[in-house]
Amino acid sequence: KDVSWRQTELESASVALTVAMEEEYKLNQEFELVNKAYLGNVESIVASLWSLSDELIFKYADGFVNEQGDMSQMVGYPAWWLEAVGFRDGPPPPPTKPKCCQPPKNPNPAESFHQGASGLLRGRDSNDNTFF
Question: Both ends of the chain: CA-CA distance in Å?
Answer without folding.
Answer: 58
